[in-house]
C-alpha cells in the first residue's frame, strides 16, 4: 500500500508593500534604509514587493546611501535567504519590477509579462515554495496591475488562468498592488479562480492603502486559496506613512 505523506499544520506571516523605488511620495526623500528596518520589524516569512529597483545608474551616483546591490537583495539582507525578482520596466538608467523575499525554499520561479499595449509595463511573479514539514508546495504570486480598467480586466484574467493551472489542493497566495480602486477584482478572482481577499473575508471590505499618509483608496490586496485560516494583521500607521506612497498589508495564513 502506498504511503500518503502527511503535513504538519504550519502558519506563516505575509507582508506586501509597493516600495515606490525606495522613495517617499513625489520622490522627496530616499527611505530604503528606514524601509528595511520597518520590514524587518514585521517579521514576515514572505514579503511581496512591487516597484522595487533592480538597478538605477543615475540614482546610484547622485543619491546618498544608495545601495550598490539590487534593492530586493538589500532588503532581504541576512533575514530572507531566498528571493526572486521579476523585471517589469526597463529604461535607460535601469529597471524595476516585483520581488518576493522568502524564509522558505523557492524551488522555482517565473516572471510573466502581463503588460497591455502601451508604455505601462506590468508583471506577475510566480514562485513555488516548499515550507518545511509540509508535503504540498505553496504558490506565491506577486502582482502589480495596470492603471486602466480595461488593462486590469485582462490582467486579472491572466492571474486566474495561471492559478487554474495549479493542483487544486495546493495553497495559493496572491498579493500586491492591484490598482483596483473600484473593487472589481474580488468577484473576478473569486468566481474564476476561487481566491478570497483576507481583509474582505474578515472585515467585509478591503483596506485603504493609498496614499500612505492619508489612505483613501484600497489598492493593495492579499488573496488566498486552500488556506485553513487567514487572519489580517494590524500594522501601525507610523513609520509606514513616511516610507512609501503605499501603506503595507500583512496577514497570517495557516495551512
Automatic annotation (TrEMBL):
<dbReference type="GO" id="GO:0004519">
    <property type="term" value="F:endonuclease activity"/>
</dbReference>
<dbReference type="InterPro" id="IPR005135">
    <property type="entry name" value="Endo/exonuclease/phosphatase"/>
</dbReference>
<keyword id="KW-0540">Nuclease</keyword>
<protein>
    <submittedName>
        <fullName>Endonuclease/exonuclease/phosphatase family metal-dependent hydrolase</fullName>
    </submittedName>
</protein>
<keyword id="KW-0269">Exonuclease</keyword>
<dbReference type="InterPro" id="IPR036691">
    <property type="entry name" value="Endo/exonu/phosph_ase_sf"/>
</dbReference>
<keyword id="KW-0378">Hydrolase</keyword>
<feature type="domain" description="Endonuclease/exonuclease/phosphatase">
    <location>
        <begin position="16"/>
        <end position="246"/>
    </location>
</feature>
<dbReference type="InterPro" id="IPR051916">
    <property type="entry name" value="GPI-anchor_lipid_remodeler"/>
</dbReference>
<dbReference type="Pfam" id="PF03372">
    <property type="entry name" value="Exo_endo_phos"/>
</dbReference>
<keyword id="KW-0255">Endonuclease</keyword>
<dbReference type="GO" id="GO:0006506">
    <property type="term" value="P:GPI anchor biosynthetic process"/>
</dbReference>
<dbReference type="GO" id="GO:0016020">
    <property type="term" value="C:membrane"/>
</dbReference>
<dbReference type="GO" id="GO:0004527">
    <property type="term" value="F:exonuclease activity"/>
</dbReference>
